[in-house]
Each structure stands twice: as structure tokens, then as C-alpha cells.
Amino acid sequence: MAVSVDLLSNPIFVLGSFLVLFIFHNYIHKEPQHGKKYHPTATTLLQPLINYKKLHDYMTSLAIRYKTYRVLSPFHGMIYTTDPVNVEYMLKTNFNNYGKGYYLPSVTSDLLGEGIFTVDGDKWREQRKVASQEFSTKILRDYSSVTFRNNTIKLGEILSQAADSNQIIDINDLFMKLTMDSIFKVGFGIDLDNLGGNEEGVRFSLAFDDANNLIYKRFYDPSWRIKKFFNIGMEAELKTNLKIVDDFVYKLIQTKIEQMQMSKDESLFKKDDILSRFVEVHHNNPKYLRDIILNFVLAGKDPIAISMSWLIYELCKHPEIQEKVAKEILEALNMKNEEITDVADFMARVSDSALEKMPYLHAALSESIRLYPALPMDPKVSFTDDVLPDGCNVNKGDVVTYMPYAMGRMKYIWGDDALEFKPERWLDQDGCYRPESPFKFTAFQAGPRTCLGRDFAYRHLKIIASVVLGCFAFKLRNEKEVMSYRLSINVHVEAPLQVYVSRRSVFQNP
Ligand code: HEM
Ligand SMILES: *[C@@H]1O[C@H](CO)[C@@H](O)[C@H](O)[C@H]1NC(C)=O
Question: Which residue ranges run through the membrane (predicted)?
């Protein structure tokens, strides 16, 4: 990725921000009013900027001292919370008071448009309704399962080759390609074939991921509007990437609409992908179709890849847990003493009922998501003056952020072993999976705006994991390596996740 200057590692930018903060703080910041109780101010905006590479851990260290705290900012009040009581209040009890507001959509609209992630109120309600109907259909369930199965077989073939030639692979890169291919296919009905190295698919995917990263940089660079106006620096780069994305997507939409209008016989073109299903209703609004489906792609692909990567990483750090997961998978598939030579054969055994018999794998996935929630922080704007259940005040316009990443590391929520990777915490005495309160395990948000793709995500994570971990064993290239995250909207692994892969004994060389 060829991003221009990394602003935050630029001392002039950091010093400049400090100066601006210092000057403006005294004039603009609305000091908490007398007589009202506010959360303790833990730091100023400058510290997170300086600590931005380790931002989530820095915010976690503050949360160990204060469950909920303020960060002094010249722009608006900033409140950060890990307290399940406050989280339940903002996401459910007083849901209507906490939304996206105007700021976030104004920064992200070039990529996300008016998709479900950026809107509040009636616009959100309408999309939520349509999307949740879509998610509950058997068509989507079946079509997406077949898609993930097909692509996981492709991944398995790549892993087999790597195992046979003792090659080191970047498993994170492969998961990113797998989920891009799969989610795009479910969304648009098109095979990008990143896993197979298709040039056009790879070009689109790179542009999409770069656009996503560049949009995120806007949050840290107040001058982005000026750069956009003059089309310079990262904004010029963003524009190029957005054009590649839009050209590609609008062409698909146009083709689909034309097919639809030309064909009298519906069954000839009617497909199960989401675009085909939406074109029937919204064929005269390509922009709306683009927004809906790109939001879907964005919602689905990175979180699934991220959860798989961190799972593999933790299982490499805990080989005994990796063995236990593999054992459960092979038992659920009734394959203790058989040999298998083909990933497709193996996949054919992974039935829905077999997936139900993998509570330990389910627990390991939840553990990966607890410690590495795809969305580490989720900010909401308070639309009115309010008081949180802990008795502290929130002013109109304050941004209240709940922090799934920090929450996963709080001993007061998870006990003294909060930092440990321990699937057992999700199982009861009989080994059955025991869900947690969504106000403690906030990775999927909670309340009316809970992630719509949670069941979808678990199903597909289990399809991928059962084959990947049932057929293969993994070891980190460098067993001492401690992997951190890369700062972006999601907690991606910081560096290539380089692993050795070997075949498990049930899965022998042909
Ligand atoms: C491990 C996987 C996943 C995690 C941790 C996750 C997490 C989240 C979170 C935190 C939100 C709330 C974001 C916000 O504030 O607006 C959300 C919303 C959403 N997610 Fe997921 N997600 C995952 C997978 C998926 C998948 C696979 C899909 C679809 C294919 C999906 C679809 C959605 C949609 C449509 C929303 C918007 C809901 C709304 O605003 O009403 N998610 N997800
Ligand atoms: C999955 O693979 C099978 C066999 O190669 C193929 O017939 C089918 O069309 C594929 N389905 C999807 C949704 O990719």
C-alpha cells in the first residue's frame, strides 16, 4: 500500500496539533458545568495521538483505572467507557439518544454513502428491516454456505501445496482473499477469484482495501477536506481507488439491470446473490444499490478474516488448545481412524449437524473475538444532555465510545484471567456453549443495532475453521513473535502472519 506521509509519525504534525489543542482548549472546550458530576478526565487528546500505535492498549490502561473516563478535546466532549451498565444504557435503554450523528457519515460518505452503517432514524430503520429480512432467508443461508465451502476448498488446496513443499505462508493474506471472494460473490454474484490470483479481482480488492484505510486516516487528519478540494496527497490516492471501486461496481449493477430488462423469462437471469434480489425493487437507483451492497461487503469480509487470523495466532501460541480443537472437529465428523486425501472430500462431511457438535471450536472463536473484537471502539453521538446510570453527565454533542477491545481485557468483567486465551470460560460443566451478556461481550454491539451478521459470521467461521484446523496443523514461523495490531477501523494483525502448515494424520498425502 502506497500511502503518502504517515501523519502521526510526523513530529511537525504532532507538535502542531499540540499547539492547536493547547490554544483552543482554553477558548472552546465547554468545561463541565458546576454542580454536575462528570466522569474523571483521564488524559488529553494529545496522549492518544502520541500513543496511537498502541492506541487500544493505551485506552485499556486508562480503563483499568477508570471504568469510564473523559479525554479532554478542543472539539467536543469525549467519553470512553468499558462499564456494562453504561453500555446497556446507551445501546438499549436510551437507544434513541445515541447515534451516528453528522460527523462520522460526513467523513465516510465517499465510500459508504447512505448505507446502513452511516444512517440513523427512519433511514436506518428502513434498511435494517430490509436487511434483516434478507439475512433470515434460506436462500441467503444456502447460497452463502455453498460459496464459503467452495472457497474454503480452494484455500485448502493452497494449504496442501504449502504443506507438501514446506513453504511459509501468510495465512492472514489468504483469509483476506477468501473472505473477499466469498462476500463479494454473495453480494454481487461474481467470482473475484483473489485466491486464484485473478488480476481484475486483485486490482479491485486492493483498491477497496486501500480506500477503506485511507478513509480511516481522515479521522486523524483535519486537513483532509482541503486536500480533497485540491486533490492532493492521500485524498488524490483515495479518489483514484474510489474510482476503481465505483467503476467496477456500477458496471456490475448496470449489467444486471440490463439483463433484467431484456429478459422476459425471469429464471434465466435470476440468481441468489443480494444484488439480483435488490435490483427487482431498486433498479432505477444504482447509487442506492451500490451503497447497500458495498456496506454489506465491508461489514462482512474483514471481521471474518480478522477473527480467523487471531484464532490461528492464539492456537499457535497454545498448541494444546489447537490439538483439542482439532480433536473435537475430527470426532464431530466421525473421522478418528480414516484417512482422507482430498479437501473437498473432507468438506463434504462438514454438515450443518456436524457443525453443531463443535462447542469447543465455537468457544475458541468467541475467545478470539473477545480479545480481538473486529471493531475495537464504537463511537456514538449523544443527541441531548443526558445522565448515564453511573450518575455522571453527558452533554449534548458529546461523543460516547464503548470499547470492546478494552472490555475484553477488564478483570472486573472477566475475572483475573481476563487476558488469557481460555475457551473453557465459554463452556458449562457439561461442555455446552454458554453465551455471555451482550453488554459484557460487546464485539457484536447490542440492543436494536446488534450486528445483523453474527450468526452468519459464526456459521462461516466454523465452516472455514473445521477444514483448516481439521486437515492441518499450524506453527508460527517465529514462535517468539508477539503480534500486535495495525491501527485502522478494524484490529487487523500488524504484520504478515507467517506460519508453517503441515497435514494432520487423517489427511495424508495422496
Ligand atoms: C466476527 C465477525 C463480526 C463482528 C465482530 C461484527 C461486529 C459488528 C459491530 C460492532 C457492529 C456495529 C457497528 C455500528 O456501530 O454500526 C456491526 C453491525 C453490522 N454488522 Fe457485523 N460483525 C461481524 C460480522 C458481520 C458479517 C459477516 C456481516 C454480514 C455479512 C455483518 C453485518 C453487519 C451489519 C449489516 C451491521 C449493521 C447493523 C445496523 O446498523 O443495524 N457483520 N457488526
Ligand atoms: C460451488 O462449486 C460447485 C462445484 O464446483 C459449482 O457447481 C457451484 O456452482 C459452486 N457454487 C457457488 C455458489 O460458487
Answer: 12-28
Query: What is the model's pTM?
Result: 0.92
Contact 493, 313 (CB under 8 A): yes
Half-sphere exposure of 409 (CA within 13 A, CB side): 19
The total domain count for the chain is: 1
Question: CA 43, 34, 75, 404 torsion: positive or negative?
Answer: positive
What is the distance between the alpha carbons of residues 339 and 374, in angstroms, rounded to a whole number?
A: 36
Q: How far apart are CA 195 and CA 87, in angstroms?
A: 39
Range of the domain at 135: 7-503
> Ligand 1: distance of its center to the CA of 303 in Å?
8
Query: What's the CA gap between 31 and 24, in Å, rounded?
Result: 12
DSSP string, 222-248: TTHHHHHHHT-HHHHHHHHHHHHHHHH
User: Which residues are 463's β-sheet partners?
Assistant: none
Sign for the pseudo-dihedral over CA of 170, 148, 485, 119: positive
Intervals of the chain under pLDDT 70: 1-34, 264-270, 508-510
Spatial CA neighbour of 214 closest among 245, 182, 237: 237
pLDDT of residue 372: 98
Indicate whether 373 belongs to any domain.
yes
Q: In what order do the strands lie in the sheet with 68-72?
A: 41-44, 68-72, 78-81, 399-402, 378-382, 98-99
- At residue 375, φ and ψ (nearest 5 deg) are -105, 100
For residue 90, give the CATH number of its domain. Answer: 1.10.630.10
> What pLDDT was estimated at residue 509?
62
430-448: pLDDT as tens digits = 999 999 999 999 999 999 9
Degrees (nearest 5) of the Cα angle 232, 233, 237? 95
How does pLDDT run across 69-102, given as a tens digit for each residue? 999 988 789 999 999 999 999 999 999 999 998 8
Residues 493, 324 contacting (CB under 8 angstroms): no
What is the DSSP-derived secondary structure letter of residue 458? H
Give a yes or no: residue 491 inside a domain.
Answer: yes
Q: Which residues does 48 contact at the CB level (< 8 Å), separation at least 6? A: 55, 58, 59, 71
Which residue(s) pair with 80 in the sheet? Answer: 69, 401
Report yes or no on 509 lying in a domain.
no
CA of 433 to the centre of ligand 1 (A): 22
381 lines ligand 1 (CB under 6 A): no
Residue 172 within any structural domain of the chain: yes
Asked whether 139 lines ligand 2 (CB < 6 A), one says no
The finding on whether 152 has its CB within 6 A of some atom of ligand 2 is no
Pocket test for ligand 1, best of 451, 456, 464 (most atoms within 8 A of CB): 451
